[in-house]
Amino acid sequence: MFLKFSTVAATLLAFSYAQDQCNLLPVAIQELPLYSLVPHTLNKTTQTICERYTPANSTQLAWITQLINLAFTGDYVPLPDLWPADPNGTYQASGILDPNAVYRDPCYTVTPINLVPYFNGTYKSNNRNGQPVAINFLDGGSVPALRSNVPAWDTTSNQYKLLTHFYQYFGLILGCSSPDFPQYTGSASQAQVHRFMDLKAPEMHYFIHSVYDAAVSLGVAGPDLVTHVGDAISIGIGLDNTFNKKCSPPQKIAPYQPAELQDMCGDEATCAHWAFSNATCAAYNQSGFGVPPSLAGPMSPSPSLCNPHYSVASGGYGA
C-alpha cells in the first residue's frame, strides 16, 4: 500500500543536502525522492505508526482522534525542542487554532502565524465547485469540543465533517489497519481542496510541526540528537514531501483513489519547489501559485485556548 524507505533512501538520508536549510526538518533530508508517506517509519519496523502507538486498551480511531485534536488545540506540556540552542531546551506547543502562534525555523527566524481565519469563515478560502467560499468549520463546539476528545458536539456541523475527514485521512497515511477504521471519503487532491488558500511556507511548516508536536506528546518517538531519525520525524518528512513542495507531481495517497496533485503551499515568495525533473508546475492552477483569499466579513472571535489544567498526562482536564 505504501513504500518504505529503501537502502537508497537511507544513503540519500545520510548524504543529501536540502536546498532550504531553514525548512521544517533539522537535517538534510528534505529533498528525498517521492516515497509517498511513511507509515512504517524510517526505521522500517513491521508495524505502522498507528499500529505501534495505539495503546492496548484503546482503539486506533481513538488514538488518531487524540492525535488530531491535540494538533489543533495544543498540548500545554513542555516538549523537547527539535533544534534547541540549549540541548535541554523545551518549548510549549500551542496548536493549529492558536491565533497568536509563532513558527520558529532552525535558523531561529520567528514568523507570526494565525490559521484561524481559514477555519472560522473569515476567509473565502474553501473550494466549492471551483469557486472560493467561506465556511465556518468551528461551528460544532470549536476548541472545547476538541479538548473533550470528540470531533464536535453534534454530527451535523461543518466541524464534525472536517474533523472526521481529518481522522480518516491521517488514519490512512499513518497505517491504521483495524477493520472498523473508517475509510477516507474526501477529495483525492489536496491541491484542489486548498486552491484558494495561498498558504505560505511558514504556515505549512507550523501546521506540520503541530502534528509532530501532537505525536511526540502521545509518545511517538522523537528524533535523537545525532541522527534526528525517529517515528515522529518520519511523519514530518511524509507530510512535508507530499504536501509542501511546489510543483510536485501527482501522488496516490489512497489505494482506491487516483494519483492527484497534492501540493498545498501556494505562496510565490516563500514556498520551496519540488527539486526533481518530474516537477509539473503547469499541471497546477496558476502554475502552482495560490489565489490569495478574500475576506468574507468581519473577523469571527478566535477560539480560546486558555486552560492551564489541560495535559496529556492527566488525560485531558484536571491537574
Walk me through this protein's architecture:
The protein is an alpha+beta fold and 319 residues long. It is built from nine helices and eight strands. It has helices at residues 7-15, 49-53, 60-73, 116-119, 142-147, 158-173, 190-193, 201-217, 231-243, and strands spanning 79-80, 90-91, 101-104, 110-113, 123-124, 126-128, 131-133, 294-295. It has a two-stranded antiparallel sheet. The protein has a two-stranded antiparallel ribbon with strand order 3-4. Strand 3 and strand 4 (110-113) form a beta hairpin. Helix 3 (60-73) crosses helix 6, helix 3 (60-73) packs across helix 8 (201-217) and helix 8 packs antiparallel against helix 9. The protein is globular, with a radius of gyration of 18 Å. 43% of the residues are buried. Mean pLDDT is 76; it is low at 1-21, 24-43 and 304-319.
Based on CA inertia axes, which overall geometry fits?
globular
Q: Kindly report the spatial arrangement of strands forming the biggest sheet.
A: 1-2
Strand content: 5-15%
Secondary-structure content class: alpha+beta
Provide the gyration radius in Å: 18 Å
Oligomer: single chain
The overall strand count is 8
N-to-C terminal Cα separation, in Å? 42 Å
Helix content: 25-40%
Low-confidence stretches: 1-21, 24-43, 304-319
SSE pattern:
HHHEEEEHEEEHHHHHE
Mean pLDDT: 76
Per DSSP, the total helix count is 9
| Major sheet attributes | 2 strands, antiparallel
